[in-house]
Structures
1.
Amino acid sequence: MSPRRPSPYVLDVLTAVGVAALIFVELGAHWDDGYSSGPAVLNVPLLLCVAAALAVRRRYPRAALSVAYAAVLLPSLFVAHTVFFFGTLLPLLVLTYTCARALDARRWLPTLAWPLLLPEVVALRQPGFDAADYLFWFVLATIATAMGRVMHRLDAQRVTLSAVLATQVRDQDARERALLLDERARIARELHDVVAHAVSVMVVQAGAARLAVGADDGEARAGLLAVEQSGRHALTDLRRLLGVLRPDESDVTVAPAPGLAMLGTLVDGMRTAGLDVDLEVRGLDDPLPGGVDLSAYRIVQEALTNVLKHCGPTHVTVAVDRAEALAVAVTDDGPRADQRQPRGRPHGGHGLIGMRERAAVFGGSFAAGPHGNGWRVSVRLPVPAAEAEAVRLG
């Protein structure tokens, strides 16, 4: 955790305290770095007033500038007093810089009157004030003003860039959200087909069992009839749900839902497209629940498509292993050496979102990231023993 930075207003107060201490050092040491004249009873309050203005320079820049310059200029109209470089001129330059940075042009331009008047008024009671002093002050005031205006422009650009970045982040979040919702709808449509098939089988089996029960067993027949009717109602509701999820009739497909049994066909198609695919399948002797089977197939399909899109022809290993859970890993070697680029593969996108969502539907885990010179997608889908046994008994 990074240390907390102090508030700029606290730093301003500390700066004012430091300048006040420097003023007393200069008054006591009688350094020949300015014009030392006038009684201490006048000098000390005026100099401390200049230092105090620094404490609020960022909170009230115009007021602080006006107070500090007035503390020097107004007494100079009537009497000579102490004007030190470090205790007076340097704080005034800091305040000039602050106003030039903090204020827009309309409010900043009137403040230029203060630094322009300073040498004119101070020279009234300081006979030793000469052309070198004029030039010295104007050079320093010009530098402070120019630095402030440059920083003002940079601050404005920074604010603009921050606003643009915030807008881009919001737009990106909206696009990702739209992709996520679209992918969830696509997953729901596919799972609808699996669930509808399972309910259809259940209805047919319940109807067959009802017909097979003896005529004298009225209670059993009534129970099976209730199961059959509930299943038919569920199928009707599922068809309505499909109408919501798939409003475009062109999306309707009559092809059977694919599964891991079709991995061989998928791999052959990818080999034709240029991928060198090794397929390793273990533990798939017993059938999987329809939703898990379909999602695992789609994950492999999407992962291979991503490899072909981002790497082109390369070697890929597809490993499917069913033990306590179904583990799927798709690992590629990356593009050929002459085609490698310094930037990595994107971490977002429709494909990764879809794979992550398919794993999440079944409470599984999903990981994707660099692996050597290539990329690896790893998914683990739990297969509840009760569901697996029900599918096996069919």
Note: Residues 8-129 form one domain.
2.
Amino acid sequence: MITRNCWRQCRVFFTRSVWQALLCGLLISACAASSDAQTLTVFAASSLTDALKELGAQFEAQHPGARVVFNFAGSQQLRQQLEQGATADVFASANAREMDAAIQSGLVTANAPQVFVKNRLAVIVPRDNRAGVTTLSDLARPGLKIVLAAPGVPVGSYTLNALAKMSLAYDATFSSTVLSNVVSYEDNVKQVVAKVQLGEADAGIVYTSDVTPATANQLSTIDIPDEFNVVAAYPFAQLKAASQSALGADFVQFVLSAAGQSILKKWGFSIP
């Protein structure tokens, strides 16, 4: 079992820098290694937090004696943690690029990853919307405060692609103008949501699944039409160094099952 002290230390690391977030991954791995032999460690993109927590609880109920421990962060951070020596059984990324990098690093077998869920982008604004952001074109309005995920984060990369599509339709300078309004780039999508919730930004771009029941009453959403949107495909795979390969295989199959996919759909994801 992961001790409370391990989680407490990890939370302290994760709220600081990217490098300290790497220590979080190592800490979780060490804690998992010292726990009982039926602990399954899953490194997963932060946008999967709520859905995988529910999946993990149901998986534990179906596997008495097994525990699922999650490390949620930006996919790029998780891959870096694994490359730095953190150990896990399953890696779930929000894009193919980080999974491909994990394959190149020898962490995952080339034919192992499977796309298990998809997502799309949306603009979020605080519920009071004092800045009056109601359309995509408003994002280019001078003086607006926008928060995005960093370009190296999957949702940040998807956002840049969407803005480039908008530039082709609106104005050649649209993307650069919107980016000039960015006041901060965050390490993961949950941080973007938090800043908009707190009113520290007038708008942000996140996944549609990030507008959860816990955040919906504090946010309003502006849809991004299909012509501008980007479909995010999430691959996951067991890691070569998995200590719980049998349990990991069972977890992968559970996520891909009708019951697992139903839970993911409930949390706002689309099914491949």
Note: The radius of gyration is 19 Å.
3.
Amino acid sequence: MTIALSVLCVLLGCQVVILTANLVYWRRRRPTADGSSVRISVLVPARNERENLPELLALLTDQTHAPVEIIVCDDQSDDGTVEWLARNAQALGVQWFRSAERPEGWVGKTWACHQLGQRATGDWLLFLDADTRPGPGFLALLASACADTDALLVTVLPSLPASGVGDALIVGMVPFGVLTTLPLWLAENHPNPGLAFANGQVLALRREDYRELWPHQQVRWAFVEDMQLAMLAKRLGRRVRIVDARSVLNVHMYRSTREALDGFSKNAAEITRGAARSLVLALGLAAACAVPLIGAALGYPLAWGIVGAVVVLVGVVWRMFGMSPLHGPLYPIAALLAVVILVRSAYWHAVGRVRWKGRTYSRRSRSG
């Protein structure tokens, strides 16, 4: 037990160092260039987003840096999205169209984004998820970042307020995992695709790069298209720019714990690059969480120190991203939910059938 606790103590120390380095690096990377001349096309892939689109589109029309156009691709919605767009899009100055039939081998979102990329006319193409909530200065910040980079891909980390405790515990593991294990300097600059990171809720590329590479076509099979696009950038010898947008962008990723479980189960095995690795990570996470708790119950002082440090570290990261630091003591539940997601995702991907938003993707339908 003492050896296991000592190893975990070293790993926790590494996480603290990485988080501290990331915060210092990020603070120095705030965009300062003049982005007033950057022409941005806002492109929104939407499947069953009747509840999200009205607020998003209203916020997009109230930006201090006006987009050159806003285009929505309806991805065969059946929840009233089409009817709402037909009634309201023109008054908001929004263009929209219904997706063509999805070809074999494409995931719905990549197919919608590919069609949007064909229609856009701006200098930069911003692919924006419908659950994002941009403040008035969001596009100005993004334009400044675009004007100040040679990166192929620009992405952001937003604030992540949650609807309830369950989805907060699930969503909160994302920024915690990223900022305590991945040095952002390496994610932006190192050529190794294994160090790639991007946030698919907000992805921006130059139009000429997009039309030359057709990147969504290259990753058409991917549920986690953001990571695949970041890996593609690195394989091409290009960079990724990660912008701190917490002050100007909120994202309500999921409306319930069940929706969060399904959403991350869809993605986890691709993020870990295979069902087997997903299971290995689940085992490791379960052990890393259980050992200190067992040690604390047995009266090991070091175990209590580790538990306390994790509570503080989790609380700090969650507060940074708009979630309650008071949920920090619930991190064992968050870890358990993450294990469930990893195992569930491994099973879905192993049997070759993944369910999301009323669709079931088989291995065959994504390999065509």
Note: DSSP finds 15 helices and eleven strands in the chain.
4.
Amino acid sequence: MDDRKGSSTVGGVGFVGMLTIAFIVLKLCKVINWSWVWVLSPLWISALFVVGILIGIFVIYLIANR
């Protein structure tokens, strides 16, 4: 029996997504005069952060299994 009356789900756009959307809207409305690299920077900065964590986990894994 699947009773979801009391359950809640979390979803939607997070902080990075909202910040990116805000920067895109500001750029398209000509409020800011940034290059697209900086408008989309929340996406690539968070991606670099995730890649850095994955590299760190991989290095720790290699050291632990040495």
Note: Residues 15-64 form one domain.
